[in-house]
Amino acid sequence: MLNSLRTLKLCLSQCWLVVMLFVVSQSAAADWLDDYASHVKKEASKYNVPGYAFVFYEQGKAPRVYVYGRTQKKGGESVTQDTVFRLASVSKTFTALLSAKLVEKKQLSWETPISTLLPDIPFNGKGMGALQLQHIVGQSSGFMPNAYDNLIEADYSLERVLKSLGELEPLCVPGECYTYQNALFGALEYYFSNNNTSYSRQMQANLFTPLGMNTASVGKGGLLASDSWAHPHIAIARNKWREGKVESNYYRFSPAAGVNASISDMTIYLQALLGEFPTVMSKEMVDFVTTERVRTKRETYRRGWRGMIDDAHYGLGWRIYDINGMKLNYHGGWVKGYRADVAFSPERKVGYVMLMNAESNMINSATAELWKRYLKKADAAN
Protein backbone atom coordinates (compact mmCIF):
# COMPACT_ATOMS: atom_id res chain seq x y z
CA MET A 1 0.00 0.00 0.00
CA LEU A 2 2.81 2.38 0.97
CA ASN A 3 4.70 1.59 -2.25
CA SER A 4 1.55 2.22 -4.29
CA LEU A 5 1.12 5.63 -2.67
CA ARG A 6 4.76 6.49 -3.33
CA THR A 7 4.39 5.43 -6.97
CA LEU A 8 1.22 7.50 -7.34
CA LYS A 9 2.92 10.49 -5.74
CA LEU A 10 5.89 10.16 -8.08
CA CYS A 11 3.62 9.89 -11.12
CA LEU A 12 1.65 12.98 -10.08
CA SER A 13 4.82 15.00 -9.52
CA GLN A 14 6.19 13.93 -12.92
CA CYS A 15 2.91 14.81 -14.63
CA TRP A 16 2.90 18.19 -12.89
CA LEU A 17 6.46 18.81 -14.09
CA VAL A 18 5.48 17.95 -17.68
CA VAL A 19 2.50 20.29 -17.47
CA MET A 20 4.65 23.09 -16.05
CA LEU A 21 7.29 22.63 -18.75
CA PHE A 22 4.56 22.74 -21.40
CA VAL A 23 3.09 25.94 -19.94
CA VAL A 24 6.52 27.56 -19.71
CA SER A 25 7.40 26.58 -23.28
CA GLN A 26 4.04 27.88 -24.55
CA SER A 27 4.53 31.12 -22.66
CA ALA A 28 8.02 31.53 -24.06
CA ALA A 29 6.72 30.86 -27.57
CA ALA A 30 4.05 33.50 -27.14
CA ASP A 31 6.44 36.04 -25.63
CA TRP A 32 9.03 35.98 -28.44
CA LEU A 33 6.88 38.35 -30.47
CA ASP A 34 6.42 40.77 -27.59
CA ASP A 35 10.19 40.71 -27.10
CA TYR A 36 10.63 41.46 -30.80
CA ALA A 37 8.09 44.29 -30.60
CA SER A 38 10.04 45.81 -27.70
CA HIS A 39 13.22 45.56 -29.74
CA VAL A 40 11.60 47.35 -32.71
CA LYS A 41 10.20 50.05 -30.44
CA LYS A 42 13.67 50.72 -29.01
CA GLU A 43 15.15 50.88 -32.51
CA ALA A 44 12.42 53.29 -33.63
CA SER A 45 13.12 55.53 -30.66
CA LYS A 46 16.87 55.36 -31.38
CA TYR A 47 16.36 56.42 -35.00
CA ASN A 48 13.56 58.91 -34.21
CA VAL A 49 11.10 57.16 -36.52
CA PRO A 50 7.78 59.07 -36.40
CA GLY A 51 5.46 56.08 -36.65
CA TYR A 52 4.94 52.52 -37.83
CA ALA A 53 2.57 49.58 -37.73
CA PHE A 54 3.37 45.90 -38.13
CA VAL A 55 1.52 42.61 -38.01
CA PHE A 56 2.64 39.02 -37.61
CA TYR A 57 0.07 36.43 -38.63
CA GLU A 58 0.26 32.70 -38.09
CA GLN A 59 -2.59 30.75 -39.60
CA GLY A 60 -4.95 29.38 -36.98
CA LYS A 61 -4.03 32.08 -34.47
CA ALA A 62 -5.19 35.65 -33.94
CA PRO A 63 -3.17 38.28 -35.85
CA ARG A 64 -0.70 40.16 -33.65
CA VAL A 65 -0.75 43.87 -34.53
CA TYR A 66 1.61 46.47 -33.04
CA VAL A 67 1.49 50.22 -33.64
CA TYR A 68 3.83 53.00 -32.61
CA GLY A 69 4.18 56.75 -32.82
CA ARG A 70 2.19 59.40 -34.63
CA THR A 71 0.95 60.24 -38.10
CA GLN A 72 3.02 63.45 -37.96
CA LYS A 73 6.28 64.02 -36.09
CA LYS A 74 4.97 67.31 -34.75
CA GLY A 75 1.33 67.02 -33.80
CA GLY A 76 -0.80 64.57 -35.69
CA GLU A 77 -2.59 61.68 -34.05
CA SER A 78 -1.56 58.30 -32.76
CA VAL A 79 -0.98 55.63 -35.38
CA THR A 80 -3.74 53.00 -35.18
CA GLN A 81 -4.41 49.75 -36.98
CA ASP A 82 -6.59 51.75 -39.41
CA THR A 83 -4.00 54.43 -40.21
CA VAL A 84 -3.28 54.35 -43.95
CA PHE A 85 0.30 54.36 -45.31
CA ARG A 86 1.72 54.39 -48.82
CA LEU A 87 2.88 50.92 -49.84
CA ALA A 88 5.30 52.15 -52.53
CA SER A 89 6.69 49.15 -54.48
CA VAL A 90 4.77 46.66 -52.36
CA SER A 91 2.07 47.77 -54.84
CA LYS A 92 3.79 45.51 -57.39
CA THR A 93 2.63 42.45 -55.43
CA PHE A 94 -0.97 43.68 -55.81
CA THR A 95 -0.41 44.35 -59.51
CA ALA A 96 0.82 40.77 -59.96
CA LEU A 97 -2.26 39.36 -58.25
CA LEU A 98 -4.62 41.69 -60.12
CA SER A 99 -3.01 40.55 -63.38
CA ALA A 100 -3.41 36.91 -62.30
CA LYS A 101 -7.07 37.58 -61.52
CA LEU A 102 -7.66 39.13 -64.95
CA VAL A 103 -5.87 36.20 -66.58
CA GLU A 104 -8.11 33.83 -64.60
CA LYS A 105 -11.13 35.77 -65.94
CA LYS A 106 -9.65 35.61 -69.47
CA GLN A 107 -9.59 39.41 -69.68
CA LEU A 108 -5.80 39.39 -70.08
CA SER A 109 -3.10 36.83 -70.79
CA TRP A 110 0.42 36.64 -69.41
CA GLU A 111 1.44 36.53 -73.09
CA THR A 112 -0.39 39.80 -73.88
CA PRO A 113 2.18 41.70 -75.99
CA ILE A 114 3.33 45.27 -75.45
CA SER A 115 1.65 46.16 -78.78
CA THR A 116 -1.73 45.31 -77.22
CA LEU A 117 -1.03 47.15 -73.97
CA LEU A 118 0.32 50.21 -75.82
CA PRO A 119 -1.12 50.09 -79.34
CA ASP A 120 -0.16 53.68 -80.17
CA ILE A 121 3.31 53.69 -78.55
CA PRO A 122 5.81 51.63 -80.56
CA PHE A 123 8.65 49.80 -78.80
CA ASN A 124 11.43 49.76 -81.38
CA GLY A 125 14.33 48.24 -79.44
CA LYS A 126 15.87 44.97 -80.55
CA GLY A 127 13.67 42.04 -79.49
CA MET A 128 10.96 44.27 -78.02
CA GLY A 129 8.35 42.69 -80.27
CA ALA A 130 8.51 39.77 -77.82
CA LEU A 131 7.88 41.94 -74.73
CA GLN A 132 4.81 40.66 -72.87
CA LEU A 133 2.85 41.31 -69.69
CA GLN A 134 4.75 38.53 -67.90
CA HIS A 135 8.07 40.29 -68.57
CA ILE A 136 6.76 43.61 -67.28
CA VAL A 137 5.36 42.21 -64.03
CA GLY A 138 8.29 39.78 -63.76
CA GLN A 139 10.99 42.46 -64.02
CA SER A 140 12.62 40.77 -67.00
CA SER A 141 11.89 43.31 -69.77
CA GLY A 142 15.58 43.65 -70.62
CA PHE A 143 15.77 47.44 -70.22
CA MET A 144 18.49 48.93 -68.04
CA PRO A 145 17.41 48.84 -64.36
CA ASN A 146 15.14 51.65 -63.20
CA ALA A 147 14.93 53.06 -66.71
CA TYR A 148 13.61 56.63 -66.67
CA ASP A 149 12.79 56.77 -62.98
CA ASN A 150 14.41 60.20 -63.30
CA LEU A 151 11.66 61.26 -65.70
CA ILE A 152 8.99 60.04 -63.26
CA GLU A 153 10.62 62.10 -60.50
CA ALA A 154 10.83 65.11 -62.85
CA ASP A 155 7.02 64.89 -63.18
CA TYR A 156 6.95 63.87 -66.84
CA SER A 157 3.56 62.55 -67.99
CA LEU A 158 2.82 58.84 -68.20
CA GLU A 159 2.62 58.95 -71.99
CA ARG A 160 5.88 60.84 -72.40
CA VAL A 161 7.80 58.41 -70.16
CA LEU A 162 6.38 55.40 -72.00
CA LYS A 163 7.32 56.92 -75.37
CA SER A 164 10.87 57.41 -74.09
CA LEU A 165 10.98 53.76 -73.04
CA GLY A 166 9.81 52.76 -76.50
CA GLU A 167 12.93 54.33 -78.00
CA LEU A 168 15.32 52.59 -75.60
CA GLU A 169 17.61 49.73 -76.62
CA PRO A 170 17.45 46.80 -74.16
CA LEU A 171 20.38 45.09 -72.45
CA CYS A 172 18.94 41.64 -73.18
CA VAL A 173 15.89 40.07 -74.77
CA PRO A 174 12.70 39.85 -72.67
CA GLY A 175 12.71 37.04 -70.12
CA GLU A 176 16.48 36.55 -70.17
CA CYS A 177 17.75 38.80 -67.36
CA TYR A 178 16.54 40.60 -64.24
CA THR A 179 16.14 44.36 -64.81
CA TYR A 180 14.01 46.06 -62.14
CA GLN A 181 11.60 48.73 -63.44
CA ASN A 182 9.01 51.23 -62.27
CA ALA A 183 8.16 53.25 -65.38
CA LEU A 184 7.30 50.21 -67.49
CA PHE A 185 4.52 49.26 -65.06
CA GLY A 186 2.78 52.38 -66.36
CA ALA A 187 1.90 50.32 -69.45
CA LEU A 188 -0.88 48.72 -67.41
CA GLU A 189 -2.22 52.10 -66.27
CA TYR A 190 -2.20 53.24 -69.91
CA TYR A 191 -3.92 50.04 -71.07
CA PHE A 192 -6.71 50.34 -68.52
CA SER A 193 -7.27 54.00 -69.43
CA ASN A 194 -7.56 53.08 -73.12
CA ASN A 195 -10.23 50.55 -72.16
CA ASN A 196 -12.41 52.99 -70.22
CA THR A 197 -11.36 51.85 -66.78
CA SER A 198 -8.40 52.41 -64.44
CA TYR A 199 -5.97 50.52 -62.28
CA SER A 200 -7.78 51.92 -59.23
CA ARG A 201 -11.20 50.66 -60.39
CA GLN A 202 -9.79 47.26 -61.27
CA MET A 203 -8.13 46.95 -57.86
CA GLN A 204 -11.31 47.93 -56.03
CA ALA A 205 -13.50 45.56 -58.04
CA ASN A 206 -11.21 42.54 -58.07
CA LEU A 207 -9.30 42.66 -54.78
CA PHE A 208 -10.05 45.42 -52.26
CA THR A 209 -13.85 45.15 -52.13
CA PRO A 210 -14.12 41.32 -52.31
CA LEU A 211 -11.47 40.96 -49.59
CA GLY A 212 -13.01 43.64 -47.35
CA MET A 213 -9.88 45.82 -47.40
CA ASN A 214 -12.01 48.79 -46.43
CA THR A 215 -9.32 51.44 -46.00
CA ALA A 216 -7.20 50.41 -49.01
CA SER A 217 -7.09 52.70 -52.03
CA VAL A 218 -5.06 53.73 -55.06
CA GLY A 219 -3.68 57.20 -55.70
CA LYS A 220 -2.95 60.42 -53.88
CA GLY A 221 -6.63 61.29 -53.60
CA GLY A 222 -7.33 57.98 -51.91
CA LEU A 223 -4.63 58.56 -49.32
CA LEU A 224 -5.69 62.13 -48.51
CA ALA A 225 -9.35 61.09 -48.23
CA SER A 226 -8.54 58.48 -45.55
CA ASP A 227 -9.90 59.14 -42.05
CA SER A 228 -6.41 58.56 -40.66
CA TRP A 229 -3.28 58.65 -42.79
CA ALA A 230 0.42 58.73 -42.03
CA HIS A 231 2.23 61.81 -43.33
CA PRO A 232 5.59 61.36 -45.08
CA HIS A 233 8.85 62.19 -43.31
CA ILE A 234 12.10 62.85 -45.17
CA ALA A 235 15.63 62.66 -43.77
CA ILE A 236 17.37 66.03 -43.27
CA ALA A 237 20.31 64.66 -41.27
CA ARG A 238 21.28 61.41 -39.57
CA ASN A 239 18.18 60.20 -37.70
CA LYS A 240 16.44 63.55 -38.15
CA TRP A 241 13.23 63.93 -40.12
CA ARG A 242 11.03 66.69 -41.44
CA GLU A 243 7.47 66.30 -42.64
CA GLY A 244 7.23 66.45 -46.42
CA LYS A 245 4.50 66.77 -48.99
CA VAL A 246 2.82 63.75 -50.53
CA GLU A 247 4.41 63.52 -53.97
CA SER A 248 2.23 62.79 -57.02
CA ASN A 249 4.94 61.49 -59.36
CA TYR A 250 4.94 57.75 -58.64
CA TYR A 251 1.15 57.81 -58.17
CA ARG A 252 0.94 58.40 -61.93
CA PHE A 253 2.53 54.96 -62.26
CA SER A 254 0.14 53.32 -59.80
CA PRO A 255 0.78 49.67 -60.81
CA ALA A 256 4.38 50.26 -59.69
CA ALA A 257 3.84 52.26 -56.50
CA GLY A 258 0.32 53.62 -56.11
CA VAL A 259 -1.46 51.48 -53.49
CA ASN A 260 -2.31 52.76 -50.00
CA ALA A 261 -3.39 50.54 -47.09
CA SER A 262 -3.60 50.24 -43.32
CA ILE A 263 -2.16 47.40 -41.26
CA SER A 264 -5.75 46.11 -40.89
CA ASP A 265 -5.98 45.86 -44.69
CA MET A 266 -2.59 44.19 -44.88
CA THR A 267 -3.61 41.61 -42.28
CA ILE A 268 -6.45 40.59 -44.59
CA TYR A 269 -3.98 40.57 -47.48
CA LEU A 270 -1.72 38.13 -45.61
CA GLN A 271 -4.70 35.90 -44.85
CA ALA A 272 -5.62 35.91 -48.54
CA LEU A 273 -2.05 35.07 -49.56
CA LEU A 274 -2.17 32.13 -47.16
CA GLY A 275 -5.30 30.74 -48.80
CA GLU A 276 -8.13 31.99 -46.60
CA PHE A 277 -10.08 33.75 -49.40
CA PRO A 278 -9.82 31.17 -52.20
CA THR A 279 -12.73 32.53 -54.26
CA VAL A 280 -10.98 35.91 -54.48
CA MET A 281 -7.34 34.83 -54.50
CA SER A 282 -6.90 31.19 -55.43
CA LYS A 283 -3.92 29.09 -54.39
CA GLU A 284 -3.10 28.66 -58.07
CA MET A 285 -2.88 32.45 -58.51
CA VAL A 286 -0.58 32.88 -55.52
CA ASP A 287 1.60 29.90 -56.47
CA PHE A 288 1.94 31.15 -60.04
CA VAL A 289 3.09 34.68 -59.17
CA THR A 290 5.54 33.36 -56.55
CA THR A 291 7.22 30.87 -58.88
CA GLU A 292 10.92 31.60 -59.50
CA ARG A 293 11.67 33.16 -62.90
CA VAL A 294 14.92 35.13 -62.92
CA ARG A 295 17.79 34.89 -60.43
CA THR A 296 18.59 38.03 -58.37
CA LYS A 297 21.93 37.09 -56.84
CA ARG A 298 22.66 40.57 -55.48
CA GLU A 299 19.70 40.16 -53.13
CA THR A 300 21.66 37.53 -51.18
CA TYR A 301 23.91 40.38 -49.98
CA ARG A 302 21.16 42.85 -49.13
CA ARG A 303 21.58 45.11 -46.14
CA GLY A 304 20.29 43.67 -42.89
CA TRP A 305 19.83 40.20 -44.38
CA ARG A 306 23.44 39.17 -44.98
CA GLY A 307 24.11 35.57 -44.10
CA MET A 308 20.39 34.72 -44.17
CA ILE A 309 19.49 34.46 -47.86
CA ASP A 310 20.92 31.37 -49.59
CA ASP A 311 19.39 32.13 -52.98
CA ALA A 312 17.09 34.77 -54.48
CA HIS A 313 14.83 35.08 -57.52
CA TYR A 314 12.08 37.31 -58.85
CA GLY A 315 8.73 35.82 -59.79
CA LEU A 316 5.79 37.98 -60.90
CA GLY A 317 5.70 41.02 -58.63
CA TRP A 318 7.39 39.08 -55.81
CA ARG A 319 10.92 38.41 -54.65
CA ILE A 320 11.51 34.80 -53.65
CA TYR A 321 14.14 34.02 -51.03
CA ASP A 322 15.56 30.69 -49.92
CA ILE A 323 16.34 31.03 -46.22
CA ASN A 324 17.87 27.83 -44.93
CA GLY A 325 15.44 25.78 -46.99
CA MET A 326 12.39 27.94 -46.20
CA LYS A 327 10.77 29.70 -49.14
CA LEU A 328 9.99 33.30 -48.23
CA ASN A 329 8.02 35.47 -50.65
CA TYR A 330 8.92 39.10 -50.07
CA HIS A 331 8.76 42.64 -51.42
CA GLY A 332 9.84 45.99 -50.07
CA GLY A 333 8.72 49.49 -50.94
CA TRP A 334 10.27 52.95 -50.75
CA VAL A 335 8.93 56.28 -51.96
CA LYS A 336 9.67 59.71 -50.60
CA GLY A 337 8.70 59.68 -46.92
CA TYR A 338 7.57 56.04 -46.63
CA ARG A 339 8.88 52.48 -46.35
CA ALA A 340 6.98 49.18 -46.43
CA ASP A 341 7.74 45.43 -46.27
CA VAL A 342 5.60 42.34 -46.85
CA ALA A 343 6.73 38.72 -46.52
CA PHE A 344 5.07 35.33 -46.12
CA SER A 345 6.04 31.69 -46.00
CA PRO A 346 3.45 29.47 -47.69
CA GLU A 347 4.89 26.32 -46.12
CA ARG A 348 5.00 27.68 -42.57
CA LYS A 349 1.66 29.50 -43.04
CA VAL A 350 3.00 32.70 -41.51
CA GLY A 351 3.32 36.27 -42.75
CA TYR A 352 4.54 39.70 -41.73
CA VAL A 353 3.97 43.30 -42.85
CA MET A 354 5.59 46.51 -41.65
CA LEU A 355 4.53 50.02 -42.71
CA MET A 356 6.48 53.17 -41.80
CA ASN A 357 6.06 56.91 -42.41
CA ALA A 358 9.79 57.68 -42.73
CA GLU A 359 12.54 56.63 -45.13
CA SER A 360 14.45 54.81 -42.41
CA ASN A 361 16.69 51.85 -43.23
CA MET A 362 15.64 50.50 -39.85
CA ILE A 363 12.96 48.54 -41.71
CA ASN A 364 15.64 46.36 -43.36
CA SER A 365 17.04 45.08 -40.09
CA ALA A 366 13.62 44.97 -38.40
CA THR A 367 12.14 42.64 -41.02
CA ALA A 368 15.24 40.43 -41.13
CA GLU A 369 15.26 40.26 -37.32
CA LEU A 370 11.62 39.12 -37.29
CA TRP A 371 12.42 36.14 -39.49
CA LYS A 372 15.58 35.31 -37.54
CA ARG A 373 13.60 35.19 -34.30
CA TYR A 374 10.71 33.30 -35.85
CA LEU A 375 13.00 30.59 -37.26
CA LYS A 376 14.88 30.31 -33.97
CA LYS A 377 11.58 29.85 -32.13
CA ALA A 378 10.29 27.37 -34.70
CA ASP A 379 13.52 25.33 -34.63
CA ALA A 380 13.48 25.25 -30.82
CA ALA A 381 9.88 23.98 -30.87
CA ASN A 382 10.95 21.11 -33.12
Automatic annotation (TrEMBL):
**Gene3D superfamilies reported in the protein's UniProt record:** DD-peptidase/beta-lactamase superfamily
What range(s) does the Beta-lactamase-related domain occupy? Answer: 39-361
Sorted alphabetically, the keyword list is:
Signal
**Pfam name, any one:** Beta-lactamase
Q: Does the keyword Cell cycle apply?
A: no
List the signal peptide residues. 1-30
Name-wise, this protein is: Beta-lactamase
